[in-house]
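hey so u asked for the seq, here:
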Amino acid sequence: MNKQNKLNLLTKISVLSVSLIITTGPAISPLLPDISNHYNNISEAAIESLSTVQQFSVVISLIIANFISKKIGIKKTVILGLLLAGFAGVVPFFIDNYYVILISRIVFGVGVGFFNSLAITVIDLLYSGSEKTKLLGIRTSMEQLGYALASLMIGALLLLGWRFGFLIYVWAIPISFIFWKYVPEVQ
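ran it, structure tokens below
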């Protein structure tokens, strides 16, 4: 494989890997019974909101992402979103406060919202024709693959304790690095 083909493949992998994170928010559902036992003074409804609250901030930040990407660029907005999701996603591993965890889930959603629609936009701007169509189809599959991998890893990490399940979100950080390295800025 020549250098140009290798770079093209790495760009495709980088663009598609962003979609691995998009649907992983609710994947923490298996952790909720243990979280509920840990925070026995917090209502069941409040505990359950930890797996859904990020969806509200995703919707709001989808709108904000367009304005941000016009100011700093699409590539930087995607990277910002990945870093927000990665760092906010792992906060519950380190902090033992329900309200901090709730806020971290909201920030996680903001991060996901920043790159959610831009994951499609980047493909639209970098590729055309059948290659673009194929990548858009693969991108949708990557969302489901990301959820499946997250669920599998959370199940395994749950054996170590509920906090460990949140470590799955650390994968957003290396994804942000490969996106930065291999994806050109798009207008």
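The chain is about 80% helix and 0% strand. Residues 98-126 form the longest helix (29 residues).
lmk if thats what u needed
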